[in-house]
Every structure is written in C-alpha cells, then in structure tokens.
Amino acid sequence: MKKREVSISFLEYSGIDELPDADRSLVEEAISAAAGSYAPYSHFNVGAAILLDDGMVVRGANVENAAFPSGSCAEKTALSYSVANHHEKKAVAIAIAALTGGELTDQPVPPCGNCRQMLIEEEQRTGHPMKVILAGKSGVTVLANCQSLMPLSFTRSNLAK
C-alpha cells in the first residue's frame, strides 16, 4: 500500500475589483450572463463566460425546467456553444458567477461535478489548460486549470483498451 496526497494551489482575491483587468472583464460577462438565466424554481441564477484564444467571449446561463433534471448548467451551456461553434479555438479561461435576489452571492460558487468533468474533458481535447475564476462578493478564487477542480477525475486514460 502507498499513501498519496493530492493538493491544489489557487489564488484568493478579496473582491472583483482586485482582479487584473482581463479577469475582471470576464467576471463581468459571467455576471451579465447570470442576469439572463432562467431559474424560476431555484432562484439561483448562474452565468459562465469562456474566453477563447482569439479574444472572443462565449457566455452561458443556467436554464431550469419543470421536468427536473432536464435543465442545463451555465458552464455546460457556454462550453457546448463554444465547442459546437468554435471547435478549432481553445478556451483559455472561464469565469463563473451566481446571483441570488439579483445580487452576486457572497461566496464563490464552484461548478457541479458534471460540469467539472466536462471542463476537464475540454482541457484534454484541446491540450490546453483553462483558468477558472469563481466570483463572489466576499472573494474570488482563481485556479490555474480545470483539473484543479477535481484532481481524481475520470479521463480518457481511465477507459479500458
């Protein structure tokens, strides 16, 4: 038996205003996307903004459905649009923001497990890390890549050959 440890490092900012301009701009896009989400059941509006390697920003918002779990997460929506319409481009960063009562949540909100897996798969597909920016009123967490969200993720290398 071997004992192993997994650790991640990340940056913490005290707020959006402390971010570098490019990251702050991407967070603002995520907040705008969240404001357009459809969340009549949870009232938890989530927005995601993905920065592509050519400077284009693709946005997504959560869309709920009475036939739960037929809805779609913001990250999944943005990533699916990006791949379907710009598959030749690489995603270099994603910002995620959530609103409750029309205001940014106090703490940053990380993606669900399904979205984490999808984001990691995109990093594998493109061979390029994607910075993750999780925004809240009381702080912003920045990770160097999506793999940091789920260190023991399922990958193509896990598939039997």
CATH topology: Cytidine Deaminase, domain 2
Poorly predicted regions: none
Rg on CA atoms, Å: 16 Å
Number of DSSP strand runs? 7
Number of domains: 1
Strand proportion: 25-35%
Give the class from helix and strand content and strand pairing: alpha+beta
Name of the level-1 CATH class: Alpha Beta
Number of helical elements: 3
| CATH architecture field | 3-Layer(aba) Sandwich
Major beta-sheet overview = 7 strands, mixed
Mean pLDDT: 94
Helix content: 25-40%
- Apparent shape: globular
CATH homologous superfamily heading = Cytidine Deaminase, domain 2
Distance between the termini: 26 Å
Q: Order of SSEs, N→C?
A: EHEEHEEHEE
Features:
26% helix; 161 residues; globular; alpha+beta; Cytidine Deaminase, domain 2
Description:
The protein is α+β, with helices and mostly antiparallel strands and 161 residues long. It is 26% helix and 25% strand. It is built from three helices and seven strands, in the order βαββαββαββ. Strands 1, 2, 3, 4, 5, 6 and 7 form a seven-stranded mixed sheet that branches. A hairpin with a 4-residue loop joins β2 (44-52) and β3 (57-61). The longest helix has 15 residues, at 21-35. The model has no long low-confidence stretch (mean pLDDT 94).
